[in-house]
């Protein structure tokens, strides 16, 4: 049951991951970032998602430590994710990248480590590195990001360990039903990045009507839709009122009718790069 910010879902290896977390994409190093992470944790968030390419792992680590100290929260109660960047994909390089992320974050381990993008010809070797890190107990769970069905199939042909998570762009304009179904069949947990479509959906008229009905904001409606679809979500914000508002989605339930109406907004429209056609 998804009851509150601490509610978790069990990944296919038995590790429990919070349904809801804070994303820090495009938040630069500095006090604003440190405060955002600290604020989120003090307001009950337990999951923080970063990546090497964001260039902000140091500040994320500082925010985590400040919050743990102020609220007497144990490291085991938090769930921290980072991702290996494309230039570091390869067995040795990926292991080194993991260690570097840990150092920057100032942590002894990560809860989840992901391959950020499915770079053709490189992600299988990187996956072998993630399997090694996992087997050695250096990371609690491993997964991928931006993988389509064919990437996952290719990965799992040689993999010893199945990915536990696939983090993808997911919002009412990009519902990814086929991918979601496939991940469900394979017991791979789907996670949404850019759930609010980088703010582009916040003035959508249909969503506004649904929001009015529940006395909620459009953002809250979308985030609730994610959760009811069984998709972990990590909205990004640095402002305290937004961080708390985003998380205020546990006191109502969308009807099946409203869920379907939100689904019907799909246009297969991406705001981020296409995983089948990127050049970085």
From TrEMBL:
Keyword Oxidoreductase: yes
Organism of this sequence: Psychrobacillus vulpis
Site (Lowers pKa of active site Tyr): 83
GO molecular function: oxidoreductase activity
Residues involved in substrate binding: 116
Family matches, as InterPro entries: AKR, AKR5G, Aldo/ket_reductase_CS, NAD(P)_OxRdtase_dom_sf, NADP_OxRdtase_dom
Record's keyword terms, sorted: Oxidoreductase
Record protein name field: Aldo/keto reductase
Claim: Oxidoreductase is one of the keywords in the record: yes
């Amino acid at each position: 049951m998804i009851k509150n910010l601490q509610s978790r879902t069990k990944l296919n290896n038995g590790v429990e991951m919070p349904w809801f977390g804070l994303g820090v994409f495009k938040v630069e190093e500095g006090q604003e970032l440190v405060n955002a992470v600290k604020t989120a944790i003090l307001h009950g968030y337990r999951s923080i998602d970063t990546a090497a390419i964001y260039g902000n792992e140091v500040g994320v680590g500082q925010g985590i430590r400040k919050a743990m100290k102020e609220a007497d929260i144990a490291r085991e109660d938090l769930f921290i994710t980072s991702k290996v960047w494309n230039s570091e994909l390869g067995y040795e390089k990926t292991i080194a990248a993991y260690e570097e992320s840990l150092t920057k974050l100032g942590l002894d381990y990560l809860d989840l480590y992901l391959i950020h993008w499915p770079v053709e010809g490189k992600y299988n070797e990187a996956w072998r590195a993630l399997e090694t890190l996992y087997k050695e107990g250096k990371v609690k769970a491993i997964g991928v990001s931006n993988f389509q069905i064919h990437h996952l199939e290719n990965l799992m042909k040689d993999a010893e360990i199945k990915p536990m998570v696939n983090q993808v762009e997911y919002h009412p304009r990009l519902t990814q039903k086929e991918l979601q179904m496939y991940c469900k069949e394979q017991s791979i947990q789907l996670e949404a990045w850019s759930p609010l479509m980088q703010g582009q959906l916040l003035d959508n008229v249909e969503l506004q009507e649904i929001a009015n009905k529940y006395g909620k904001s459009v953002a809250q409606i979308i985030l609730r839709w994610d959760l009811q679809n069984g998709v972990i979500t990590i909205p990004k914000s640095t402002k305290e009122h937004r961080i708390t508002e985003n998380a205020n989605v546990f006191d109502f339930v969308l009807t099946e009718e409203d869920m379907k109406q939100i689904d019907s907004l799909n246009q297969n429209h991406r705001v981020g790069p296409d995983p089948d056609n990127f050049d970085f």
